[in-house]
């Protein structure tokens, strides 16, 4: 059997346990590994500190200590300006337009596998290594495919669905091929002497320091009072800014009086032009189809309509669907209605475990009422 080639690998080290173990595995596999931590804020103290975040001064120190234990060179690269423009400003603009973006997916697309990868290749590296749970599969014809992690419970291929074939050719995901629990990853980190072994996972949005997304948006978009409407257009409440809501939201509506049927209501639609938020019962969230834009394919685009499964959230279930690409649009129709899908989210198509591609949801289509 031919030995795998020795690569020059740039390991993106966030300061967490997954990226540290991924870097250690890459080095153990015989690759020439260099660690790098991305400084994504001009003021790192404005990002989360302690157990809840990433991208902090504390995280850069944790990453450096891990690199020292692994025995690899380590650097900190300042990508704060690029991150602000491509991720933070995009996040604010999407909410201003009444959409619900996924900043982690955008960070992978614009930062880790664009800005970082391009810089790595320019410096002579062969690949970028991260702690994502996903797999790159080499086909007999030499092309590469992105697949779900061997352990579907930890799979993160949804947020990597924006990667094209060129980027996949220069990506390593050392954690994706093994079926291990997070406790086993932590135990491996302990065996390797990595101090991050018991560090809690980061969660939520790294650039919102206090976890208050509505407050963050209010600070950047201001307060603009408007109406909360029922499905028939009746005003049933008010809000301080439509950007503080997302389709499918139930809590924090501040409607006051209950609905006539006594059931809870959910956000059905957000109109930034009229500055209104429309609410209704859960079943009104059902959609049967969607239109998405700016598709990115993990390989060749599909030829004609096909049957796939579609995932609509990072940890959501798969929905059987048919899909067809038409220029810069992707049309998806579901076998059964799905609920609570918001424009701005990503739809990722799968063929079995293979990631076909990703697109940004632009519009959703609800079932036609039976009495029409």
From TrEMBL:
Domain tRNA-specific 2-thiouridylase MnmA-like central, residue spans: 215-280
GO biological process, one term: tRNA wobble position uridine thiolation
Annotated positions binding ATP: 12-19, 38, 131
A GO molecular-function annotation: tRNA-uridine 2-sulfurtransferase activity
Main subcellular location: cytoplasm
UniProt keyword list: ATP-binding, Cytoplasm, Disulfide bond, Nucleotide-binding, RNA-binding, Transferase, tRNA processing, tRNA-binding
Catalytic activity: S-sulfanyl-L-cysteinyl-[protein] + uridine(34) in tRNA + AH2 + ATP = 2-thiouridine(34) in tRNA + L-cysteinyl-[protein] + A + AMP + diphosphate + H(+)
Localization: Cytoplasm
Reported function: Catalyzes the 2-thiolation of uridine at the wobble position (U34) of tRNA, leading to the formation of s(2)U34.
PANTHER family for this protein: MITOCHONDRIAL TRNA-SPECIFIC 2-THIOURIDYLASE 1 (PTHR11933:SF5), TRNA 5-METHYLAMINOMETHYL-2-THIOURIDYLATE -METHYLTRANSFERASE (PTHR11933)
Protein name: tRNA-specific 2-thiouridylase MnmA
Lineage of source species: Bacteria, Bacillati, Actinomycetota, Actinomycetes, Kitasatosporales
Recorded name of the encoding gene: mnmA
